[in-house]
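Late entry, written up from scratch paper. The run itself happened at the end of the previous shift, but nothing got recorded in the book at the time, so transcribing now.
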Amino acid sequence: MFRSKYREMAWWLMFVGLLFAFFGACVNFSHIIIVGILFASFGIILLEYDRRVAHDSNKS
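Output as recorded:
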């Protein structure tokens, strides 16, 4: 289903981050919201890394 292991991990990180952020918002616990945002951010970073590796881009 996924083109690479990085892409699969990135989507899982974003999904878990969304769950953490939603749970933290429901119980009004800001530390969990921050953890959720960090998980989602790492997922986005992995997706960008996967895109650069797939296109063999050496530019930053």
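The first helix runs from residue 5 to 26.
(Scratch paper discarded after transcription.)
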